[in-house]
Amino acid sequence: MVYAVVTGGGTSGHVIPAMAILEGLLEAGHTANELRYVGSRRGIERSLMVSSDVAGEYLPISGLQRSLSPRGIARNLALPFRLVRSRLMARALIKRWQPRVVVSVGGYASEPMSAAAIAAGVPLVCVSYDRTPGLATRKQARHATVSAVAFEDTELPRSVLTGAPVRAELRHLNVLERRAAARRELEIPQDALVVTIVGGSLGSGVLNALAPELLMAMGVADKPNQFLFHVAGARDTGSFMSYVPQVGYRRVAYESRMADLYASTDVLVCRAGASTVAEIATVGIAAVIVPWSGAADDHQTKNAAWLAQQSAAIMHTESECADGTVVATVMRLVQNEAERADLAQNARVMGAVHRGDALIRTIENAAI
User: Fold this and answer.
1) Domain assignment present for 364
2) By the 8 A CB rule, do 48 and 18 touch?
């Protein structure tokens, strides 16, 4: 018999929290043989779950394609058939595994398994780590045993404040203690003042455009030994300025060593995805956050405001990237160690809710 099934995926924004929950259950004493993960064949989960000891099942479910290309239209036409097949497969998995609890992290990949759990009377825990829950989570929460939420003002039925699911290596990370080893791992000079740009696994054109401007500003600043680490994303392969006197610069498409990256960073420039905001608070790092203006229900602005309203991060709009405001803010932080330290400390205080075990205890309490 399986103890818990964690379901959801399609994007790293859903898969990483699912992996964090599995890690938490393992830390609580449950074995890998007692756990399962269910995601989509068409998402990023297969590649990310390679590192996990927990077995996974991957359903043919896919998300709605917004593209009007022939391929996008064909995939949308096939979606109802994939959904029906995925639901049938999910019901068979529930019958075979007889789990004591199903945990949904949302996204289209969570729908079949959550529906199967509800139909079979298996307790369902909906985990919401966005301040504004997504559509799948809102629908599933109506029938869930409990909704585990990361924000006090998140409105879902039977909600319990548990914090967000964060990977174990980040929950246990001491930034200052790891800094030297992390910089050796990433080949960053030990004495450098490091600014890091991260736009998510796919990258952000808005944040990527800041790189040359930041390099130029860092090059004329009265601050020696600066370094810009730029995670540009897999889909943005445009050319960026690669040399400015006195400033080190490295651009990568993707960086999986996030604990090392956070530990190496003095100032982080990033988007406001739920996992990113939770990680900033969990590890305690000075951050300049630019919410994505196209996010559904403007949920990224609400995520970022949770930190910004408590002086635990600085939030700017996308338009302020274009007019030089964001670069000016970053350079102010580069020159002001005390302000960086205050932001990092305030963020870490707010991250206490994410570093605890309330989420795992909530899942265990819901289990049959």
Assistant:
1) no
2) no
> Does 183 map to a domain?
yes
CB 130 within 8 A of CB 8: no
Of 94, 128, 161, which residue sits at a domain end? 161
Number of domains in the chain: 2
**Cβ neighbours for 222, distance < 8 A, ≥ 6 positions apart:** 335
- 151 and 201 share one domain: no
- Whether residue 140 is found in the same domain as residue 179: no
Host H or E run for residue 127: strand 124-128
The Cα 149–Cα 164 span in angstroms is 7
Distance of CA 141 to the CA centre of its chain: 21
Q: Which domain holds residue 297?
A: 170-353
Strand partners, 39: 58
What is the 3-class SS of 152-169, one letter each residue?
A: CCCCCCCEEECCCCCCHH
pTM of the full predicted structure?
0.91
Whether residues 184 and 290 fall in one domain: yes
- Which candidate, 250, 223, 245, places its Cα nearest to that of 340? 223
Share of the chain above pLDDT 90, in %: 75
- Clarify whether residues 149 and 19 are in a common domain: yes
How many C-beta atoms surround the C-beta of residue 213 within 10 A?
A: 16
Q: What is the CATH number of the domain that holds 127?
A: 3.40.50.2000
Residue 63 has pLDDT above 80, yes or no: no
Residues 33 and 134 in one domain: yes
What pLDDT is attached to residue 70? Answer: 64
Q: Are 251 and 211 in contact (CB under 8 A)?
A: yes
The span from the first CA to the last CA of the chain, in angstroms, equals: 12
**Helix, coil or strand: residue 200:** coil
- Give the Cβ contact number of residue 16 at 10 Å: 25
Q: Locate 166 and state its tokens.
A: 């964060």
